[in-house]
Write a structure and sequence with these properties.
The chain has 16 helices and 22 strands. The chain has 749 residues and is of the alpha+beta class. The chain has four domains: 116 residues, Beta-Lactamase (2-Layer Sandwich); 114 residues, Beta-Lactamase (2-Layer Sandwich), CATH 3.30.450; 196 residues, no CATH class; 229 residues, Beta-Lactamase. The strands form five sheets. The protein has a five-stranded antiparallel sheet with strand order 2-1-7-4-3, covered by helices on one side. Strand 3 and strand 4 form a beta hairpin. The longest helix has 46 residues. It is elongated, with a radius of gyration of 42 Å. The two termini are 32 Å apart. The C terminus is likely disordered.
């Protein structure tokens, strides 16, 4: 009986202490931690865009060099022209002899090869990673690729009886390009690409750049990146200098692969983003509330403990002693034990204990022969079950307001403005990342379509197979004729249900229903005069939706959806059904609010919405402002629960709710424990003892628990046996006084 009561008091006091500790730790800094975390993630997203651009360019250079149709008569000059004619960002190009480093052909600006050991660079196995070099006071990226030529017959110095040997030749292609253009969003935000020493290599600003930026942040970011180790995608945040009512916050992230070795690991590049944010002037202090709430709970815990002690524990202990006394008087011999029966049984408490006390008093008189069996009324008042329910209600009076009403974060003011702006900027970065992925798919498909005319059907099939192998984002490639029929296909069965032959090229959807959304890139296959026509007029490449979904997730960005012009989901970072609506009507309205006037892409927007799970920081942005995806009217929508962000008002709401849930759960659990081990057995014993006092001598009373209630049950069983023996003796005509009957019963035992 004591453990559940003691546990109730102790656990509620623990919850009170946790309430003080949890809420006292919530405070408002001049720059909230959520703002610093948002800038860190913005820098990480920007670094991801830079890393992706470099990786895509390096793989494109290697793929172009590997696909070059070199012949035994190819010259370095013609090969270099063919390899670079379609590449706009190239500053300079060169073909080198990989063994000697001799320049074979060059184009554009001179390629800065000082400090590059060509022979050693080309002798390695696998892909050659890009290099960062200096040229004329600027930094450029060098991309490398091997150009393999057909094997040449070597018959000089050969014995006449030996067959001529054939050796394979290679050229080393080197392209110099500027660093990828930075893309940043958020008014006043500046993004820089730094080298390992903290020198800015490229800078871009969105909106009005802040005056007097903290000059020590680049060196601090480079030092922090260096301390995190090379070849990782580590990131962090920094707090710069304060200017008036604004503070400069910075985020840094390494441009390195996050999954094993990559093309950017050796470059030592770091992305630094900075932005001035207003400092928080209104401090929130939850310590007083914490003390008041903890004091109220501690008072309730002590009140419940005292109530259970005086209403349950003490009466039950007295009942336990009275039952033991009557059992000794009924079974043991001696004048002292017989005197136990002459002491009345005090009736304490109410409910089951009072019923048991009255029944014991009736049994005492029956053992003395003063009265016979007594019937007890079937209608009874409230019992100890009602006391347990009242205890739960008392705890709930404290817990329910904590869960539902107190410290509720105001949807309009809980989330700081910079956090909302960061969500919008990161949504725009996500849209830009998705647009780059789709644009690259279209560019790759256009290059393939340009190489199909003039080839045989078998050669075209082989080209499509190689494309499917090299470009993992495609699940199916096929050619359509002018009627929309598929004339050539490689890969999986197409998902298309829309039979159409579009003009031009771009990105589109080829179904409007089904289990999987089908997004496809398409390009026209031009007829070339004097060459055999291709097997179709339009080349389609269905993009694997899993590849698109893998681009969407980012830390602290929440759920990400790509929707079409009707706000139906095409891809998502979470589970979804094809062409379903967004999970919340507020998100749908937010996505539609990004739509601009006819013929325009629209503008990004953000808001704080509240749902049943609490407030969330949401944003929506048009997928693209230009390019093949601009006219689609697609959107990117993100929703991050505010609970996942370190926002003081939301933290206070969370911890207040947690305290209420803990208090209600532990209080109900302890009172339920008391009901199981004490109240429910007492109800059973009350029924049995009333039957025994009413004349039932046949029902054997088996103690179930080894506690106070079990001891009372054992005592009742001894009294039942004594009464049954006396009744048997009375029926046989040998009944004596109560003391003799009890004495004889004792001797027989």
């Amino acid at each position: 009986m004591r453990p559940p009561i003691a546990s109730l008091v102790v656990l509620l006091l623990v919850v009170a202490a946790l309430t003080v500790i949890g809420l006292d730790g919530v405070h408002t800094d001049p720059v909230p931690q959520a703002v610093l975390n948002g800038e860190q993630q913005t820098a990480a997203d920007t670094a991801l865009s830079v890393r992706t651009a470099i990786d895509v360019e390096a793989s494109t250079v290697r793929r172009t060099a590997g696909a070059y149709p070199a012949t035994s008569t190819s010259t370095p000059a013609t090969a270099l022209k063919a390899l670079t004619s379609a590449r706009k960002p190239v500053l300079g190009s060169a073909l080198l002899d990989p063994h000697t480093g001799r320049l074979l052909a060059a184009g554009g600006k001179p390629v800065p090869l000082a400090g590059v050991d060509v022979a050693r660079t080309a002798s390695g196995h696998g892909a050659i990673r890009p290099r960062l070099v200096a040229s004329g006071g600027t930094r450029q990226l060098l991309y490398f690729a091997r150009v393999t030529l057909p094997a040449q017959q070597e018959d000089a110095n050969q014995d006449q009886n030996q067959a001529p040997s054939r050796t394979e030749r290679q050229w080393l292609l080197v392209l110099s390009e500027a660093l990828p253009a930075l893309t940043t969003y958020g008014d006043g935000r500046t993004a820089e690409v730094l080298d390992a020493s903290g020198t800015a290599l490229a800078t871009t600003a969105h909106g009005t750049s802040p005056a007097g930026a903290d000059s020590g942040l680049p060196a601090a970011a480079a030092g922090a990146a260096k301390g995190s180790g090379s070849g990782t995608d580590a990131s962090g945040s920094l707090l710069g200098a304060a200017t008036g009512s604004r503070h400069t916050v910075a985020g840094w992230a390494q441009v390195a692969s996050m999954t094993g070795p990559g093309d950017t690991d050796d470059l030592g590049l770091v992305v630094l983003t900075t932005r001035p944010v207003p400092t928080t002037t209104s401090a929130a202090d939850y310590s007083r509330f914490a003390l008041e709430a903890a004091g109220a709970l501690a008072g309730l815990a002590l009140l419940l403990g005292l109530a259970l002690h005086f209403l349950v524990q003490r009466p039950l202990l007295r009942l336990y002693l009275s039952a033991g006394r009557l059992a000794r008087g009924a079974t043991e011999d001696g004048p002292g034990t017989l005197e136990e029966l002459y002491r009345p049984v005090p009736v304490h408490g109410f409910g089951e204990l009072a019923r048991i006390g009255r029944a014991l008093e009736s049994l005492r008189r029956q053992l003395l022969g003063e009265s016979g069996p007594e019937e007890f009324p079937a209608r009874r008042g409230p019992g100890y079950r009602a006391l347990a329910v009242v205890g739960v209600v008392v705890v709930a009076c404290w817990a329910v307001p904590m869960i539902f009403t107190l410290n509720r974060a105001d949807t309009a003011t809980a989330v700081p403005g910079p956090v909302l702006a960061d969500q919008q900027a990161r949504t725009q970065l996500a849209a830009n990342r998705i647009r780059q992925s789709l644009d690259q798919s279209y560019t790759d498909l256009s290059d393939v379509a340009a190489g199909l005319p003039g080839r045989s059907r078998a050669a075209q099939t082989e080209v499509l197979r190689h494309t499917l192998t090299d470009h993992k984002q495609y699940r199916s490639l096929y050619l359509l004729d002018r009627s929309g029929g598929i004339t050539l296909r490689v890969g999986d069965t197409p998902l298309r249900t829309l039979v159409h032959v579009p003009d031009g090229g771009g990105i589109t959807t080829v179904n409007t229903s089904g289990r999987i959304p089908a997004i496809a890139a398409y390009a026209q296959v031009r007829a070339v005069k004097g060459k055999a026509p291709a097997a179709g007029v339009v080349l389609f490449g269905e993009i694997d939706v899993k590849a698109l979904n893998s681009v969407l997730p980012r830390p602290k960005l929440g759920s990400v959806w790509v929707t079409n012009d009707e706000t139906k989901v095409l891809a998502a970072s979470v589970g979804y059904r094809a062409f379903q609506s967004l999970p919340d009507s507020g998100l749908t309205r937010l996505a539609r609010s990004t739509q601009g006037a006819a013929g325009t892409a629209g503008t990004a927007t953000s808001a704080v919405l509240r749902s049943s799970s609490g407030p969330s920081v949401d944003a929506a942005a048009p997928l693209a402002q230009s390019g093949p995806t601009a006219r689609l009217g697609w959107h990117v929508v993100t929703a991050e629960p505010a609970a996942a962000l370190q926002i003081p008002a939301v933290q206070a709401e969370q911890r207040t709710m947690l305290a209420g849930i803990l208090g209600l759960t532990l209080g109900a659990a302890c009172l339920g424990w008391l009901h199981v081990v004490v109240i429910r057995p007492l109800r059973s014993v009350a029924v049995l003892v009333e039957r025994l006092a009413g004349g039932d001598r046949r029902t054997v009373l088996h103690p179930v628990n080894h506690d106070e209630v079990g001891s009372v049950t054992r005592s009742l069983e001894l009294m039942r046996q004594a009464l049954a023996e006396r009744d048997r003796a009375a029926r046989s005509g040998h009944a004596a006084g109560p003391s003799r009957s009890l004495r004889e019963t004792t001797l027989q035992r």
